[in-house]
Design a protein that fits this description.
2 helices
Length: 60
């Protein structure tokens, strides 16, 4: 049985095959999985957003 983190979410993504192949190639070049690179990109985007608009407050 697979163990998941309590707050871990799955995110499906539809993407053009050529973009996907190029992205995976570039990720491999940097020694990262596509998943790890997407998370890095998301965190960078969130940091830029919060820098301009203030910290995002999540309701629990």
């Amino acid at each position: 049985m697979e163990h998941k983190k309590i707050n871990e979410k799955h995110c499906g993504l539809r993407v053009d095959g050529d973009i996907h192949a190029k992205f995976r190639h570039a990720c491999g070049f940097h020694g990262r999985s596509a998943n790890a690179q997407i998370i890095r990109l998301m965190l960078k985007f969130i940091a830029e957003y919060e820098s301009e608009h203030g910290k995002i407050k999540l309701e629990k």
